[in-house]
Write a structure and sequence with these properties.
InterPro entries: Glyco_trans_2-like, Nucleotide-diphossugar_trans
Shape: globular
Strand order of the largest sheet: 3-2-1-4-6-5-7
CATH architecture: Alpha-Beta Complex
Strand content: 15-25%
CATH topology: Spore Coat Polysaccharide Biosynthesis Protein SpsA, Chain A
Order of helices and strands: HEHEHEHEHEHEHHEHH
Number of helices: 10
Radius of gyration: 17 Å
Subcellular location: Cell membrane
Number of domains: 1
Number of strands: 7
GO cellular component, one term: plasma membrane
CATH class: Alpha Beta
CATH superfamily: Spore Coat Polysaccharide Biosynthesis Protein SpsA, Chain A
Keywords: Cell membrane, Glycosyltransferase, Membrane, Transferase
GO molecular function: glycosyltransferase activity
Structural class: alpha/beta
Largest sheet: 7 strands, mixed
Length: 257
């Protein structure tokens, strides 16, 4: 019975179209790897998909690298957002997306070959309209694994409360939900990802899906682990109490906010 249900969900005529959205600001060192990882993550997905890279006023070679990728891979599309900010870039990608589902990844996010198939199949089976993913570190040291394990535990514990949390490096939502909640908050410096899933949960069915992704630890290293953990704990507390972290600044690579 369960096997037939899985086969039904894998019918390419019934699987929804998916738009993978990748914001990119001065990501010439990792954007090609990130796009190829996203392509790899669609390998077993039988439905339609597109990968939208939003160049966010990059001053390096990001735009030209993606431009070359669009020539080799017709599923890859390149957009530009001239207002700087990761939320602006994500919202731009969503505005031009043609998929029923939006999968937000970062330029340095890495996913497995069955990521899209497993994630969308689970969301369809459970009637989920928004979801987040557990993270694994790209550098699997004991401290890195412990740090993300703690975050994953909190994320799993809070998924059924009114204050869920998430990592913006891997969030999925139906486009209609994204539009309903007004997209990512462009006024937030840090925690816009948790704010996003909190707003989504106010209007839609949300959960943490089983398929993990690989999180690049560079942004943690850029500020130092102690400082990053302290800021993360402060953000958790602020989010749980006030559902907002607008005054907290966390530096993306190259000061990307």
């Amino acid at each position: 019975m369960g096997s037939n249900k899985n086969q039904e969900h894998l019918d390419p005529m019934k699987m929804p179209k998916v738009s993978v959205i990748i914001p990119a600001y001065n990501e010439e060192k990792c954007i090609e790897r990130g796009v190829k990882s996203a392509l790899n993550g669609t390998r077993t997905y039988p439905g339609e998909y597109e990968i939208i890279v939003v160049d966010n006023v990059s001053s390096d070679g990001t735009y030209f690298i993606v431009q070359e990728l669009t020539k080799k891979h017709p599923q890859v599309k390149l957009e530009q957002q001239h207002i700087k900010g990761v939320s602006h870039a994500r919202n731009k990608g969503a505005s031009v997306a043609t998929g029923e589902y939006l999968v937000f990844l970062d330029a340095d996010s890495q996913v497995g070959p069955k990521f899209l198939e497993r994630t969308i199949t689970e969301m369809e089976a459970k009637s989920l309209e928004a979801a987040s993913c557990c993270a694994r570190p790209n550098i699997p040291t004991v401290s890195n694994k412990f740090l993300l394990w703690v975050f994953n535990v909190f994320m799993l514990m809070l998924q059924h409360t009114s204050r869920p949390i998430a990592l913006g490096a891997a969030i999925i939502a139906k486009k209609e939900v994204h539009m309903m909640i007004g997209g990512f908050d462009i006024d937030m410096y840090y925690g816009e990802d948790s704010r996003y899933v909190t707003k989504a949960k106010d209007h839609a069915k949300f959960a943490v899906v089983k398929e993990p992704f690989i999180f690049d630890m560079r942004r943690v290293y850029s500020e130092g682990k102690i400082r990053s953990v302290a800021k993360l704990l402060w953000a958790f507390g602020h989010h749980l109490l006030f559902r907002s972290t607008k005054k907290i600044k966390f530096r993306y690579d190259h000061d990307y906010k």
